[in-house]
Amino acid sequence: MALILNEDQQLLKQMAGDFVKNESPTSRIRQIRESGDEVGFSRELWGRMAELGWQGILIPEQYGGLGMGYAEMACVLEECGRKLVPEPLLSAVLLGGNAVLLGGNEAQKSELLPKVADGSLLMTLAYQEKGSRYSTSQVKTAATSAAGGYAISGEKVLVIDGHVADKLVVSARTAGVVDDPDGVSVFMVDREAAGVEIVQQTTMHLRNSAIVRLHDVEVGRDALLGAEGAGVALLDDVIDRATVGLAAEMLGGSLEAFEMTLEYLKTRKQFGVLIGTFQALKHRAAEMFVELELGRSAVAGAAQALDSGADDARALVSVAKARVSDLAVLVGYEAIQMHGGIGMTDEHDIGFYLKRARGSELTFGDSAFHRARFATIQGY
Amino acid sequence: MALILNEDQQLLKQMAGDFVKNESPTSRIRQIRESGDEVGFSRELWGRMAELGWQGILIPEQYGGLGMGYAEMACVLEECGRKLVPEPLLSAVLLGGNAVLLGGNEAQKSELLPKVADGSLLMTLAYQEKGSRYSTSQVKTAATSAAGGYAISGEKVLVIDGHVADKLVVSARTAGVVDDPDGVSVFMVDREAAGVEIVQQTTMHLRNSAIVRLHDVEVGRDALLGAEGAGVALLDDVIDRATVGLAAEMLGGSLEAFEMTLEYLKTRKQFGVLIGTFQALKHRAAEMFVELELGRSAVAGAAQALDSGADDARALVSVAKARVSDLAVLVGYEAIQMHGGIGMTDEHDIGFYLKRARGSELTFGDSAFHRARFATIQGY
Amino acid sequence: MSDLESFREQTRAWLEENCPQSMRWAPRKRGNPALADDLVWGGKKQTYPNADAKVWLERMAAKGWTAPTWPREYGGGGLDKAQAKILSQEMSAVRAKPPLIGFGLTMIGPLLVANGSEEQKLRFLPEICRGEIRWCQGYSEPGSGSDLASLQTRAVVDGDDYVLNGQKVWTSYADQSDWMFCLIRTDPDVPKHQGITFILLDMQSPGVSVQAIKLISGASPFCETFLDDVRVPRDQVVGAVNDGWTMAKALLGHERTMISDAFSESSERNQLVELARTYIGEDGDGKISDQVVRDKIAQLTMNKVCFDLTVGRTKEAAKIGQQPGPESSIFKYYATELNKDRHSMMVSVLGPQALGWEGEGFEQDELDVTRSWLRSRGNSIEGGTSEVQLNIIAKRVLGLPE
Amino acid sequence: MSDLESFREQTRAWLEENCPQSMRWAPRKRGNPALADDLVWGGKKQTYPNADAKVWLERMAAKGWTAPTWPREYGGGGLDKAQAKILSQEMSAVRAKPPLIGFGLTMIGPLLVANGSEEQKLRFLPEICRGEIRWCQGYSEPGSGSDLASLQTRAVVDGDDYVLNGQKVWTSYADQSDWMFCLIRTDPDVPKHQGITFILLDMQSPGVSVQAIKLISGASPFCETFLDDVRVPRDQVVGAVNDGWTMAKALLGHERTMISDAFSESSERNQLVELARTYIGEDGDGKISDQVVRDKIAQLTMNKVCFDLTVGRTKEAAKIGQQPGPESSIFKYYATELNKDRHSMMVSVLGPQALGWEGEGFEQDELDVTRSWLRSRGNSIEGGTSEVQLNIIAKRVLGLPE
Predict the structure, then answer these.
(1) Cα torsion for B169, B172, B175, B176, to the nearest 10°?
(2) Residue among A277, A319, A379 minimizing CB distance to D402
(3) I need a labelling partner for C328 at 20 to 30 A (CA). Which of A65, A216, B339, D345 fits?
(4) What distance lies between CA D203 and its chain's CA centroid?
(5) Do A293 and D299 touch (CB under 8 A)?
(6) Residues with pLDDT less than 70, chain A
(7) Comparing C-alpha atoms, which of D368, D354, D369 is closest to residue B205?
């Protein structure tokens, strides 16, 4: 196991942290919210991230990437999570890019992955439907055979960065009924294709998202990723990887909120003394620290398991997502409470961290979902 | 609702508290344990309780009792719970007596209840079997028709005060298969009857208990309590009432353990100061106080619901048992932790309270059992 | 027929005749906090939700029944306790909404009745009863937080006036209010609990400016109030100069009770169950299909039952004239923690449908759950933090050493 | 072949030949704490579980491999780190049980190697290596609890001796031990962390009496030790007089690591699942039939996984020569809290079958669950309470103000 960072990884993390601190303070996300900016991120900064190679970290060298792993990706995403960086790494690389990498044939990979790696192509995954909750098999969207391919109809919601994605990876049912694990297929759909309607959503946690409506959208056979009807396995694999990325981001957000709170405890006076001298708060801070360290281990363990192709990778992904979900919400709640009234104001940044914490908790499965999945994997 | 005590009840409680404090300090239960006393309580003290009328509180005046209710019974049991009083009120009155009161015909009631009320007859309920957990329908013990009545065979465990009970109220299957809610019948069996074998058990929580083995024990038709095959409803009603009694006892034990701990916090010094000055411990003590007040309300609510015959009585019994189960374990754990090393020694009484807390928690259903039952009653 | 019985009959008849149908609660919606918007807070900025609301207030105020137990000379109803109880029961019987609510009736009014000068009573109480002025409370300041006595806003005597300078925060609806009752430091040279005076302030006074504070939930129930050389006549002091802390303590008690009362409605008890049926589903027996969710909902519901029973104990004791027991010290703490837990669970039950802020893809009910959840996080901060509540229990109830 | 490779080959061959079959772990039972009874703690009161245990100890001690890295002149193996790692790996490969365990090897021995006088090393270390003396630790006193430095046991100089008076408690297995290393106050007139001296005490000395403390679990792993005019030669002081606190700190660190290590075996991870299958049952798919229990077991198992991963981080860092990071401060706290939670849950899973203490009606395994649960409650008290651990994290790691 490689649970601690080697020198290269430490350097990568350090650089990512500096970049984020200098280029993307938390105030950015506030500005984007206030301005109603429809893009919701900076294409210029996205380009500079590509220069640093971030979009290519997970992509093999033969497709123009750096061929590194989740340990490295987690370093970058943890730092991005600290400042709630809005650029679409999660969607473009971990969802869209991974769908091609894990499900695509050689032609698809050769064509698309280099563009993902250099940041020129934005992809995302459109798998959730209203009421589908955290399931990949709850698919009502239907793909029927059409001349030379398929015609897809249905509605996808909470598509991360769906408002800007050039290509949408869409799950649709080619056979079976809702909740049937077989019969789901995965297609790539161009945003410009006839019948695609995209409506931007405004989320509580300020994660750029969209509704994607497909009205008899025709795609060719070459739009299929992986075998027809075998999409659930592909979706689960893709989402597992995105989940580790999200967990790293959540760890970063939790660390930042914790450190902001620690700083507040050390500077805020009440009743004539620093509130950080109150033992009840000290113990709660120490308990948060314990959870943060366990969360860090969980993320490292899951990343390492993916990188080494370990048998227990899926179980460790659930461990990580369950842990950081509970961790992020705990820290978010405690951060607000310890900040007192000021923490309840929209003006203070700490509220963003609570919102993002729960938003991410409810993305790719909350802790109860992952405990149940873990138990199933473990055979009990 | 009558959630607070009226003057008579306050007086009863005060007198019970004084009696228990003077006559039955916690040291008694230690002495009984050390001496290996096979009776496990004092017949003399039992007689004096009868003089005070405690055994007759719940028994209608026409059968020689005081015709009072669960509010009054709870007053007495709360005080008994404070000192872990070993006399068999729970078994003789709340289990055995109630089985006759709720299930018996006029002849049975007229014959037996006066003896329960004056303390001369010890009865108990033998319903649990190995593996039956908290279910009243998990009954393997079988009653088959025999000349003039039934022949009963089977094994009952953890029969409270079964080692001294004169009459055992036994559940046995007259029809159906294990776990079938129909087909269970309730019989009275004399301890002296041929084929009855009683083996005393040594329990962690020092609750006098026994295994009762029945080898083709013959009983007449007049041994049946209630209708043949309708025993589960009777058992549930009886156990509901005993549960409220046990909950009152648990509340008393929790209050005593809490007060012992509070006293320790006020007198024990560490690092040169009283440990009760540490804010982390203060907050935990205050949280325990909150739980104690809620537990007190829950017990009062359930007692009042039984006394008024309220529709929601069963739901409130579950609320009370779930609450005091969690409360008693919380207080037991915190009491040991706050006492530190001395709390871990057998020599200190506080350990008795933790053991009794969990012992009572696992009697008549733990909090998870009662939450599920509550949800079912509430229709969700 | 006794006097009380005849009072009951007359009251019932009057209410039946005078309470407009639209000012009666719909049976099922009682206690739904969304409906609080329908209620009349009074004041010059009041816009009535409908014509009936105004009529209802005017009719009740004319009888003095907006403040039934206050003396008639100050605009109240002059009822004794038994009569007031009957009025309350009969209003419940016809499901009448309160004609008027707010800090005037529940906080500053009672204080003036008990501690105001005759002049103050005659000046303010009738206006309060008629809903003509709305009040806000100016206690907290930036930096004071839980340590209320550390306040810094200063008043210095200048002729017949005080001149006030400083800043108040967390003033509920200061932007909607006509007057503020506030705590001001009048003597900086004595220990902090002394030297504070309770002052009534006209929000129209020159030098008063108000700015709404936007919360993480998006709502703005609180304001910052800036006081810049604001002149207040010295006869607007309530109680003795430098004895404001005594006045404040009584009112703070009121506020804590109100906050916990706000959560003690039991009609919402099963909202979680309804949400779970919708968002999680149920099995063939009508049980919530996820047992873990069901277990947590049962726990929260039981918590609520236990809390309601505890409040019930205090109410029963009050009925027979007993002082609130130690159990009342847990109300603020537990009610707010419970409310937070309940809202937190509602978000979990909604799952991804709780991710909305506004716009397409989410029902209004869903958006309300999310925003109410965020708002609930402040419950354990405002009106005395949970930490302060635990400190109080540890000290005053348990007697643990300082 | 490198020197290390040849060392590995020789070691493996020697172990294969010399480690008796009965002194090898059964593959599945590794980490089962019940087996700790098989292990040899040494000392004059040691009764060997079987003849092989004695042979195995003698053979290993003859090679110095009971203390592989100690110098050969003190009875150790004189191995360097690389060799010691190979020995450890090869012992694992043949599943050899340790020939000898105890405080001599893990606590007082290393301290003497580092800080003992030459005389002390020659006198004690060989006996420790051969398992001839067993040690106990005399730190805690009645009333000292978490505040170790407040100890009161006094030593006064009399000729070449110290004369000791006082009482030690929580001495693990003092009744089984030959020697005690203890902290004694030698100067009462200086601040409490000063004036303490680290002294080695022969338990056979006149004036020493030992009484076992029975715990709530029924077991007696600890003793009280009374010291009544006990004479100890002054050359049995380790380190400088009045510098005992420095000595103690190093050892206390050792103890904390040991306690958390004791719970980091992962073979027990699924004991809860097995118990749940037996006592709760499973559904048609082999899932635990009570989803709430299943959820809690998954939570506890995940907690354990996260803890093991955290320990793994420290071990990896140690391998590349890094100091333990801040994560190591959580080990004692979390390991003991987790162990308590796990045992508490085991009792819940057993339900009524956890009610036994002894005798009929309960299986031995059930009685063990109950007693182990009770024993586990002490984990967060001994070796530094959880409260002290949280204080340490708050102060040293988080830098929160005093």
Answers:
(1) 120
(2) A277
(3) B339
(4) 20
(5) no
(6) 1
(7) D354
Could you report the per-residue pLDDT of B129-164, keeping only the tens digit for each?
Answer: 999 999 999 999 999 999 899 999 999 999 999 999
What residue type is assigned to position C44 of the chain?
K
Alpha-carbon dihedral D301, D303, D309, D313, rounded to 10 degrees: -160
Nearest chain A residue to D335, by CA: A290
- The beta-carbon neighbor of A322 closest among D302, D327, D400 is D302
CB pairs below 8 Å between A and B: how many? 10
CB D168 within 8 A of CB D138: yes
User: Which amino acid, residue B75?
Assistant: C
Choose between A290 and C170: higher pLDDT: A290
Complex prediction ipTM: 0.91
D161-172 and D222-233: which strand pairing?
A: antiparallel
Top pLDDT among D265 and A362 is at: A362
C295 in contact with D at a CB cutoff of 8 Å?
A: yes
Subunits with 3+ C-beta pairs closer than 8 A to D = A, B, C
Chain C adjacent subunits, 3+ CB pairs under 8 A? A, B, D
The closest of A235, A282, A307, A224 to A9, measured between CA atoms, is: A307
Residues of C within 8 A of B368 (CB-CB) are 295
What pLDDT is recorded for position D125? 97
- State the pLDDT confidence band at C27, using cuts at 50, 70 and 90: low
pLDDT at D29: 42
Q: Give C55-79 pLDDT, tens digit per residue.
A: 999 999 999 999 999 999 999 999 9
Do D310 and A379 lie within an 8 Å CB cutoff? no
Measure CA C224 to chain center: 19
pLDDT(C32) > 80: no
**Strand A123-126 and strand A167-173: pairing?**
parallel
Q: What is the pLDDT of residue C31?
A: 39
Q: D298 at the A interface (CB within 8 A)?
A: yes
Residue in the block written with tokens 């009990």: A380
**For the domain B233-377, what is the CATH superfamily, name and number?**
Butyryl-CoA Dehydrogenase, subunit A, domain 3 (1.20.140.10)
Q: Do D358 and B368 touch (CB under 8 A)?
A: no
> Which of A280-284, B184-188, B370-374, D360-364 shows the lowest per-residue confidence on average (mean pLDDT)?
D360-364
Pick among D287, D289, D291 to test the C interface (most C CBs inside 10 A): D291
Q: CATH topology for B7-121?
A: Butyryl-Coa Dehydrogenase, subunit A; domain 1 (1.10.540)
Question: Does residue D318 sit at the A interface (CB-CB below 8 Å)?
Answer: no
Q: Judge whether B313 and B305 are in contact, CB under 8 Å.
A: yes
Two tokens, residue A173: 């049912």
Rounded to a whole number, what is the distance in Å from the CA of C285 to chain D's nearest CA? 16
- Sequence ranges of the domains in chain B: 7-121, 124-229, 233-377
Cα–Cα distance, A196 to A170 (Å, whole number): 12
Q: Among this protein's residues, is D255 annotated catalytic?
A: yes
> What fold characterizes domain B124-229?
Butyryl-CoA Dehydrogenase, subunit A; domain 2 (2.40.110)
